[in-house]
What does this fold into?
Amino acid sequence: MSIITAYIKHWFTSKPRGGFGIHSPFVYRFVTDVIECKHQYYAYLDVERFRRAWLSDKMEIDFTDYGTRPSGKRKICDIAKTSLKSKDLAQLIYRIALSNHSHNILELGTSLGITTMYLALTDSKARVVSLEGCQAVANCAISALNLRGIKNVEIVTGNIDNTIKGVVSTFDSLDFVLFDANHRKEPTLSYFKECLSKVHDNTIFVFDDINHSDEMREAWAEICGNEKVRVTIDIFHLGIVFFNKKLKKEHYKIRY
It folds into this structure.
């Protein structure tokens, strides 16, 4: 199924904006107060200036990718165009992490550090660990974080297949995890299962590109069916997962 076909299908099978047709009070509040929130947080302006800088940076770096993109010499501006979350999605991720007062945050896929900055700015006392496969890209993110004066982020470089287990073991629990690394079925499910041991009732997982390909749609279906998962929200580009055992097991598609 092409991504265009998948989007058309999503549009006709999803709930409209405004929370219409959502009977769960929890999901209704999350959709209206978090997903559709129009408040302009101070972090937005702060972080977006770094995005603009990356989009104009023509310096070449050695780009190593363990997922679906080719490795080799690439301009930073080209990496920014293809790898960074859009402003709307990056700011939504910020609001989601803010919504449950996330203190222990794990990000899979640092890229140039835009979402990393957003996650770090939800709480200066939060612990944010971000995993990145490419050292050169991680170095760019580190330089931006240092320039902004962000001190609560640790970036771990190397193949995430090899680093995730050790990093997850350093957390007593995980409040928020962003899965934005290897956009293939088996790695996605492997990372999901690795993080499951640290979830609690208020944990939120966010998966990027759940409709990127047939295998990512298959991965998302397996995640939705997991016994620990209670509620999921599919906004097409992102999948949001909740684990509160008090919630009825339900799956929503929302237009965003």
User: Anything to note?
Assistant: The mean pLDDT is 93.
